[in-house]
Amino acid sequence: MLSRVKHIHAGKVRDLYEDGGDILLVASDRVSVYDVTLPTPIPGKGALLTQLSLWWFERFGDVVPNHVLSGTDVPPEFARRAIRCKPLEMVKVECIARGYLAGLGLKEYQKYGTVSGVALPPGLEEGSELPEPIFTPTTKAEVGHDEFITFDDVVRQEGRETAERLRDLTLEIYRRGAAHAETRGILVADTKLEFGRDADGTLTLADEVLTSDSSRFWPADEWQPGRTQHAFDKQFVRDWATSTDWDRTPPGPEVPPEIVEATRARYTEAYERITGNTWTG
Question: Which of 194, 216, 225, 257 has the most beta carbons within 10 angstroms of its beta carbon?
Answer without folding.
Answer: 216
